[in-house]
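::Amino acid chain::
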Amino acid sequence: RFTVARISKCCQIMGRLENRLTAAQILYPMMQCADVFYLRANICQLGLDQRKVNMLAREYCDSKGIKLKPVILSHHMLYGLKKGQEKMS
């Protein structure tokens, strides 16, 4: 169910093109998804650009029969604290 094609749709969060991804770029969304469950997060707060990873985590719950899915709290990107910094990274 969770194929490379499905995972690669989540890679847009990194500004990557889906047809040219390295192994690390494919693993990154899977690791973010795994973090939600490893940390036992009830509320998952991520930026709007990462909503595809959030949905992947919720789909995983469906596939494994997990009834309590993480609540998704999305927000716009936070700007950096330094003058001229576009986002916090």
Summary: The mean pLDDT is 80. The CA atoms of residues 44 and 72 lie 5 Å apart.
